[in-house]
Automatic annotation (TrEMBL):
Keywords: Phosphoprotein. It comes from Niastella yeongjuensis. The modification 4-aspartylphosphate is found at residue 55. Residues 2-115 form the Response regulatory domain. This is DNA-binding response regulator.
Amino acid sequence: MNCVIIEDEKPAAEKLLSLLALCNQQVYVEIVLGSVKEAISWLQEHPTPELIFMDIELSDGLSFKIFEEINVECPVIFTTAYDEYWQEAFEYNSIDYLLKPIKPEKLEAALNKYQKLKQHFIGYKALANWPVTQPPTGGIAGFKKRFLVKRGTDYISIKAEEVAYFYATHKLVCMVDSSGQKFIMDQSLADIETQVDPAAFYRVNRKYLVNMSAIKRIKAYPKSKLLLEVVPLVTEDIIISQENAAAFKQWMGQ
């Protein structure tokens, strides 16, 4: 289980790490982030973890600000010394609310809850995506061939192969087609990712889901990361993390 800890107090972070190491479940902590700003930056550039342990009162504000800036797409276990935020916490992906000092049995119970919820939603997702009809001739079962998008007062249909990339920005998800036209989507990036052919589209980081045909160049980047150039061009760097680089290169070479 890949996790991220968002905690600004080093002793508290070290205590949580030691408790996780003693749990019956295998937990891999990718990184410990110490502020709202740092968390937003990291989550925008890296694949979504399976679970986040999140303190509420951080050095630069309440961690709820993270959800206001980006779309957090995984469950969160809040860890805090204050009990007055528990109602608000459950508005932000919370599956549990652990008061400090965290007790080992409470942590174990929270992880068990996560596993049960995970199995439940895996089963639900499989049923929800089960094709009820045969795909059109030449189509790929279970994957969308077209996206219906709005332009002004009209609706138009964009073929999946004509999509260059999808990207998330300011709580919106946009599609850009191969001609550079941009359309606002009414689904999350995570939802769209489940609908497109994984042989053609890759979630390169938290913000971008890219069609292989739109990739113009891949460059080496410091700390074993990759820098992606796509067409149509974007005004920001698309960075693939060190953790995701090997899988991405394997996908490109399939």
